Amino acid sequence: MIFKNLFSHPKTTRLNKKILNIAIPNIISNITIPLLGIVDLALVGHLDSKVYIGAIAIGSMIFNFIYWGFSFLRMGTSGFTAQSYGKKDFKESFFILYRALFVGIIGALFLLILQKPIGLLSFYILDGSSEVEFFARQYFYIRIWAAPATIAIYSISGWFIGMQNAKIPMMIAIVINILNIAFNLFFVKILGMKSDGVALGTVLAQYSGLIVGIMFLTRHSKRLKIYLIIKDILQAKALKKFFNVNKDIFIRTMSLVLALSFFTAKSAKSGDTLLAANTLLLQFFTIYAYIVDGFAFAGEALAGRYYGAQDKAKLIKVTKLLFYWGLILAMIFTIVYYFGGNLLLSLLTNNVEVIQNIQPYLFWIYLIPILTFGAFIWDGIFIGVTASSGMRNAMLISTFLIFLPSYFILNHFFGNHGLWAAFMLFMIARFVTLSFYAPNSIFKKLY
């Protein structure tokens, strides 16, 4: 039945082609992200002290918080741009790019100016050993200089996705991650640097990626010059709308960060072995999230396009197709996780104690694909149509009314199983609440 709905009509086939043209390049670029993390850990993991692993872990955690906070620039930019593309208002699409870059540059400058207080606060909260903290500080104060490039790339990638071009963000991501690995190998293996070499490699790779992004933008140099109209770019009404949507996305993202951080913190309180077990199991969620996000990005681009064009029939159709693709992907990953779960674990660790402790909780990873894909697909569609208030409210309800209360109830009776059950309820709640908000936030506006 699913395949019949996917391929039963020529128009459906054309829509599927558009979905896959955006989803596949994003899946490819997303795969390079965990690959880079694995290489970084492998490099420092073979140095003469385990403190370098801790330094990378703490430093990376700080930047995860910082950059997740700025991820609204990619999401908001793709949604607004896709709608302008659907309206064939290319002038406005270039204004959106300039607004995103303007906001990103201001934000990056604040990070550079306030790097000392940010560093002091971060290392006060993340209380590591003095030796780990010393190298983590080195890592932080080098990598912070990549902020302008990283944030600008968010805006550029979001703009290209909104313009229905996922191949350029894919190429930018591949260049960044391949160069990052190459730079890190050079600085650590050849020059003998430590965690500071990994940080410097990241900085150089990010600016290399920014140069590549600018090179692709120069293809539109004529329009970029024509539409560089400061008074229109900084128009108060347009900026207010841009900030309102991105404010909601920021709140939504920080709530998600809180939920994931809470999961890790509670795992840590259960001891080092259970923390290691949960961290490895969570990698199955992370890997799947990166893959299914390819279809969420397709949702951003295509839902925004048809919403902007006021084409309700195609918006409904593409929404259904995205859920069909999400379900197919979920079934594939469920099978892979069921039959290959222990094999994948053996690639992540050879610690017998940790693998033994994981076994009672292994069945949770079989549930991850089916129970979580709906939330990811809805996220992409909501971002595309910039229905940010519904998205924000759904996340707040899921985090504070479902996840946290269910944890305190279930963990009391079921221990670590209760933590995983609460996390799954959190993801189900995201799907249910977004489904509840969708009719009024998305489709009703097109009557």
Protein topology:
Blueprint (H helix, E strand, L loop, with lengths): L1 H6 L2 H36 L5 H20 L1 H16 L2 H24 L1 H11 L4 H14 L3 H16 L4 H24 L4 H23 L3 H6 L3 H4 L2 H34 L2 H37 L3 H37 L3 H7 L4 H22 L3 H27 L1 H28 L4
Helix pairs in contact: 2-9, 2-14, 2-15, 3-7, 3-13, 4-5, 4-8, 4-13, 4-14, 5-8, 6-7, 7-10, 8-10, 9-10, 13-14, 13-18, 14-15, 14-16, 14-17, 15-17, 17-19, 18-19
- For the report, how would you describe the main beta sheet? none
Rg: 22 Å
Classification by helices and strands: mainly alpha
How many helices? 19
Strand content: under 5%
How many domains comprise the coordinates?
2
* N-to-C CA distance: 29 Å
Average of the residue pLDDT scores? 85
User: Helical residue percent?
Assistant: over 70%
Detailed description of the structure:
88% of the residues lie in helices and 0% in strands. The protein is mainly alpha-helical and 447 residues long. α4 packs parallel to α14 (272-308).
Key phrases:
447 residues, mainly alpha, 19 helices, 88% helix, 0% strand
